[in-house]
Amino acid sequence: MDRNNVSNATGLPAANAQAAAAAAAAGAGAGHDAGILIFGMSMSSRMLIIMVPLMISGAGYAGAFFADPAR
To answer: CA-CA distances (angstroms) from residue 58 to 48, 62, 71?
Structure first.
């Protein structure tokens, strides 16, 4: 990742995005939901849309969600 061009929806500077990602790695390792949410902020919107359902509820829920968007 180019640390000078970090894509995120919050407009955080790259250094802050890196710190958030590092904190999220520790949080996600401990199974802490806040860590996953913080990590999501440092990701692009498209990756966030794809990864959040996978991280929160598992591939089964994400598959059902994308198969039936009206749900």
So the answer is: 14, 7, 17
Tell me the pLDDT of the chain (71 aa) as tens digits: 444 444 444 554 555 555 555 555 554 454 455 555 555 555 556 665 666 655 665 555 545 555 555 54
Residue 38 burial (10 A CB sphere; 0-12, 13-18, 19+): buried
For residues 61 and 53, the answer to whether their CB atoms sit within 8 Å is yes
Question: Distance between CA 42 and CA 33 in Å, rounded?
Answer: 15
